[in-house]
Amino acid sequence: MGGAQARFCAVANHHGVALRHAIVSMDGDLSCRERLRADLAVTYPAVEIRRGDTLGNLRRIRAVLGDLRPDVLLTHNFGAIEWALANRLPGARTRHVHVEDGFGPEERDRQLPRRVLLRRVALRRATVALPSRVLLRIAQTIWKLDDRRLRYVPNGVDLSRFEGASVSPAPWHLPGETPIVGTVAGLRPEKNIARLVRAVALVPGLRLVVIGDGPERAALATLVADRGVAQRVALVGHLDDPASAYAHMDIFALSSDTEQMPLSVLEAMAAGLPIAPAKAHGN
Questions:
Q1: Which string of b and e fits 112-123 if b means at least 16 CB within 10 Å?
Q2: How many helices (H) and strands (E) does the chain have?
Q3: Pairing outcome for strands 275-277 and 251-254
Q4: Residue 94 to residue 122: CA distance in whole angstroms
Q5: What would the pLDDT profile of 15-67 be if each residue is shown by its tens digit?
Q6: 193: how many CB neighbours lie within 10 A of its CB?
Q7: 74-133 residue pLDDT tens
Q8: Residue of 46, 180, 208, 268 with fewest CB within 10 Å of its CB?
Q9: Which residues are CB-neighbours of 220 under 8 A, at least 6 positions away?
């Protein structure tokens, strides 16, 4: 689960039954619905999105918006830009809130001109929420969005999850007494956990714990075996709530190629851990 999903679940759970939701996952993964309160009114409309068929996608999305007639359209990141564009078509114009909280590997070093243009057009009349000052400057100077529609909303975590919480046993077993470096991340290319594995392999005895799951897990398991550090690296997988796991780490490491305001760093800070960023763009 990424920050966008965690943020939406927190907001939806906070408002409870006061709101109804129709949730569309762009990649079809709905596993995060387990985080939503059982008493929420939620539907999951099926929307056929075809890669490369922009006009067809716009028509299908516009039809869904016409059927749902939502009071607010909430979109997250560039992956949902077609929803923002569909909402600009005649007869749509639902109140629109867009959250942009970071970039994938294709935009880690520079803004792509086509995406800049699409954001300028699609988000011109939207309220745009941004969790970092870097993103705010980009929205102002590169996307050239109306400053009156921009909202700087820093990420945050519930400190009560970490204050005075009982420490449960570590959800991993790594022999030894040397320091444990930990990280919590979706195992996606832009998180570059491989960089962290290679770094730990250079320090004799240092142990590494990776909490999270995703498409890079198999490649990381192969890298751990190839570097001969299987006894020092634990790929723990997904934890519903990693709050207690931070207590078993000595230091938190961030190895992402691109970040803005990662929730995992805030959680590590709440747990009192020192932070070691290997490489990250944003603040």
A1: eeeebebbeebb
A2: 8, 11
A3: parallel
A4: 13
A5: 999 999 999 988 888 888 888 999 999 999 988 888 888 899 999 999 999 88
A6: 27
A7: 999 998 999 999 998 876 678 999 999 877 777 777 888 999 999 999 999 999 999 889
A8: 46
A9: 187, 193, 194, 197, 210, 235
Alpha carbon distance 244, 221 (integer Å): 24
Packing angle, helices 193-201 and 217-226, rounded to 10: 10
Q: At the top level of CATH, which class does the domain 3-152 belong to?
A: alpha beta
CA distances to 190, 226, 242, 254, 256 from 214, rounded to whole Å, are 12, 20, 16, 17, 14
Q: Which of 99, 94, 84, 79 minimizes the C-alpha distance to 10?
A: 99
This prediction has a pTM of 0.75
- In the block, which residue shows the tokens 């998180």? 191
Q: Under DSSP, is residue 219 helix (H, G, I), strand (E, B) or coil?
A: helix
Q: With b meaning 16 or more CB within 10 Å and e meaning fewer, what string describes 131-164?
A: bbebbbebbeeebebeeebbeeeebebeeeebee
